[in-house]
């Protein structure tokens, strides 16, 4: 197994783990980490695809590398914004969850 195939498989595994975490976990910080896993996997796979194209003696194309670098910067900025929003949610409500059952439970007071 060549290193590029191994890196591609690792990228695919990161995307799979990220999708799993994004779908199943209601906590916003875990969703943010899962989203970053997906982004890292996509960047890795995209870099490997660009590298394999260069290894196959296609013409040098700097666009994939530029897109990966731009994507890393955008992902960092989006993560910082998401952390700020999560902190604001925690400060405003005292709860940090996206689960709708957690929001409606304590306010009912058991009265019917």
From TrEMBL:
It is found in: Cell membrane. It is a multi-pass membrane protein. Keywords: Cell membrane, Membrane, Oxidoreductase, Transmembrane, Transmembrane helix. Its EC number is 1.6.5.11. It comes from the Bacteria. One of its GO terms (molecular function) is oxidoreductase activity. It holds the Pfam family Oxidored_q2. It is an enzyme of class 1 (oxidoreductase). InterPro entries: CPA3_antiporter_subunitC, NUOK/Mnh_C1-like. Coiled coil: none annotated. The chain crosses the membrane at residues 6-25, 32-54, 66-87. Belongs to the CPA3 antiporters (TC 2.A.63) subunit C family. This is NADH-quinone oxidoreductase subunit K. It comes from Candidatus Rhodoblastus alkanivorans. The lineage of its organism: Bacteria, Pseudomonadati, Pseudomonadota, Alphaproteobacteria, Hyphomicrobiales.
């Amino acid at each position: 197994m060549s290193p590029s195939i191994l890196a591609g498989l690792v990228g695919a595994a990161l995307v799979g783990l990220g999708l799993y975490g994004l779908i199943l976990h209601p906590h916003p910080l875990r969703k943010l980490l899962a989203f970053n896993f997906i982004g890292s996997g996509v960047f890795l796979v995209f870099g490997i695809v660009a590298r394999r194209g260069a290894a196959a003696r296609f013409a040098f194309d700097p666009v994939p590398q530029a897109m990966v670098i731009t994507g890393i910067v955008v992902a960092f900025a989006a993560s910082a914004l998401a952390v700020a929003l999560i902190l604001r949610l925690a400060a405003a409500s005292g709860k940090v969850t996206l689960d709708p059952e957690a929001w409606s439970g304590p306010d009912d007071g058991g009265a019917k």
